[in-house]
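The instructor's notes for this session suggest beginning with a concrete chain rather than abstract definitions. Hand out the sequence below and ask the class to guess, before any prediction is shown, which regions might be ordered.
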Amino acid sequence: MCAELQKAGEIDGLRDGQDLTGRAPDERPTDISTRPSGTEGDEARVATTCREVLERLPSEPIDLVAVRLRYPMARENSMNSVLAQELQRYNTLVSLITASLSTLLQSLRGELVASASTEELFRSVLLGEIPARWLRVSYPSQRTLLGYIADL
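After discussion, reveal the predicted structure:
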């Protein structure tokens, strides 16, 4: 039976020319390095994703003073200090995301010259990945970009 499948080119249900997803060679997505970069379609998709992410983020940072007044740091409530620290980290992350996406949008409109970090951010957003720059100040995540933003 196994020899018959090998002769027919069907090992484990795959036919000639199919990869593990079952797609034929012309149906497989092309590698990012072989696609033309900077096309208007890519720029429009990235700009749309940037605006969508910015809409989902809070417009104002969390007021840490109000949090510390409501949850004072005391020996009996040590988790209050953890809460304040985590909210500080959250504010830093949201600020970084907002600033970097705003810079990318300005660059896409031609208002700013694109830097290496802006190009890296463009590539990450285009591929739906979390930019490495954000992960340096964030929690580790294996989610897609929009899934990561939804978790925030």
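Then share the key points. Residues 12 and 78 are 57 Å apart (CA to CA). The chain has seven helices and no strands.
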